[in-house]
Design goal:
single chain, about 120 residues, mainly alpha, about 75% helix
C-alpha cells in the first residue's frame, strides 16, 4: 500500500483501499463472474479449443481497440473466419457469459467515474 506522509491522508487512502478490496471481493463473488469462470474452465480443459478461442478473442480485441474506420467490416470478416468456432455451444456460452460480466464491469466503472466527476478525462475522447 502506498504511504503518504501528509497528516491524515494515509488513513483516508487506507480506507479507499479497504473499500476497493471489498468491491473486488463482491465482484469475485458475483453470479456474473462465477458463471463466466465456470464456463471458461470448461473450454480451458480442451487445449485446442481454448487456443482457437483465444486467437479469436485476441484478434477481436485488437480490432475493437484500433482506430480503423473499417473495424465493423473487419469484425464481420473475423466472425465469418471463425464461424465454426462461434457455433460451438461451449464457446457461445462462455462468450455470452463474458459479455454479461463485462457489462457489469462497465457499469461499475461508470459508477466510479460518475462519483469522481471532476476528474479530467477529456483527453480520452
Amino acid at each position: 500500500m502506498l504511504e503518504i506522509k501528509c497528516k491524515g491522508v494515509g488513513f483516508f487512502m487506507g480506507n479507499v483501499v479497504e473499500k476497493a478490496d471489498a468491491l473486488a471481493s463482491a465482484i469475485a463473488e458475483s453470479k456474473e463472474y462465477k458463471d463466466y469462470i465456470s464456463l471458461l474452465k470448461i473450454i480451458q480443459g480442451e487445449p485446442d479449443l481454448y487456443s482457437h478461442f483465444n486467437e479469436y478473442r485476441r484478434r477481436s480485441f485488437e480490432i475493437q481497440v484500433s482506430s480503423d474506420v473499417n473495424a465493423v467490416n473487419q469484425l464481420e470478416n473475423l466472425r465469418l473466419e471463425f464461424s465454426e468456432l462461434l457455433t460451438n455451444s461451449k464457446v457461445s456460452r462462455v462468450l455470452s457469459a463474458e459479455q454479461i460480466f463485462c457489462k457489469m464491469m462497465r457499469q461499475v466503472n461508470a459508477k466510479i467515474m460518475e462519483s469522481i466527476e471532476e476528474m479530467d478525462v477529456s483527453f480520452l475522447s
